[in-house]
Amino acid sequence: MTLTAVPGPDGSLRCPWGVAIPDFPAYLTYHDTEWGFPVVAERRLFEKLCLEGFQSGLSWRTILAKRDAFRAAFAGFDPERVAGFDEADVQRLLGDAGIVRHRGKIEAAIGNAGRLLELREETSLAAYVWSFEPDPATLGAPQSLTTSPEAVAMAKDLKRRGWRFVGPTTVYAFLQSMGLINDHVEGCVARPQVEAARAALVRPTA
């Protein structure tokens, strides 16, 4: 199914999901300024992998509303600091009402930080992630897929490396949001901006 861009509060056309929650302005801002714009910064990539894991079974609106609390609770998603969290930190996080208090997801985020430190011995997280950039010609209509061969391959490899809560659907959502795919619908005001940013990006290499 081909999605059609719809007017936002300023009259500009956007992806339907971007204007779906008018009483939560942060959602529109996220759509306009973050989603789909290419990212190579390690902390932002690691943060999004963690938050996509926390989103499993929930909505992105829920996670976005709690993002600042997550950042405070997880030391700004500094991989070295998160990798050093112990059981006392797990208990602290389980008692933090500002985040999603799910022991499995909390422990996965901590464990994944350790796996990221291991990955650094081989390559950077940015180079690793961008090595799974899909060919746009294979993706079809924007927002028509929930996974791709690249997302499946990345999820499989991450799991082989010991990462958790990184299934193919989670990874595909990560690829969309971090700009490895321009999945803004045709006519969306953000689509050409994302395309320009992707065209200007120097892809990271190992």
Compact overview of the structure:
The chain is an all-alpha fold and 206 residues long. The chain is built from eleven helices and two strands; from the N terminus they run ββααααααααααα. It has helices at residues 25-33, 42-55, 60-65, 67-73, 79-83, 87-94, 103-120, 125-130, 149-160, 168-177, 190-200; strands at 6-7, 13-14.
Give the topology, please:
Layout lengths: L5 E2 L5 E2 L10 H9 L8 H14 L4 H6 L1 H7 L5 H5 L3 H8 L8 H18 L4 H6 L18 H12 L7 H10 L12 H11 L6
Helix pairs in contact: 2-7, 2-10, 9-10
Description:
It is a single chain. The N and C termini lie far apart (about 40 Å). Helix content is about 50%, strand content about 0%. The chain has a two-stranded antiparallel ribbon. The radius of gyration is 17 Å and the shape is globular. The protein contains 11 helices and 2 strands; from the N terminus they run E-E-H-H-H-H-H-H-H-H-H-H-H. A hairpin with a 5-residue loop joins strand 1 (about 5) and strand 2. The relative contact order is 0.18. It has helices spanning about 25-35, 40-55, 60-65, 65-75, 80-85, 85-95, 105-120, 125-130, 150-160, 170-175, 190-200; strands spanning about 5, 15. The model has no long low-confidence stretch (mean pLDDT about 95). Helix 2 (about 40-55) runs antiparallel to helix 7 (about 105-120) and helix 9 (about 150-160) packs across helix 10 (about 170-175). By secondary structure, it is mainly α.
Shape: globular
Number of strands: 2
> Describe the biggest sheet?
2 strands, antiparallel
Number of DSSP helical runs:
11
Estimate percent helicity.
40-55%
Q: What fraction strand?
A: under 5%
**Largest sheet: spatial strand order:** 1-2
Order of SSEs, N→C?
EEHHHHHHHHHHH
Please state the average pLDDT score.
97
Detail the poorly predicted runs.
none
> What structural class do helix, strand and pairing data support?
mainly alpha
What is the terminal separation in angstroms?
Answer: 38 Å
The radius of gyration over CA amounts to: 17 Å
Protein name: DNA-3-methyladenine glycosylase I
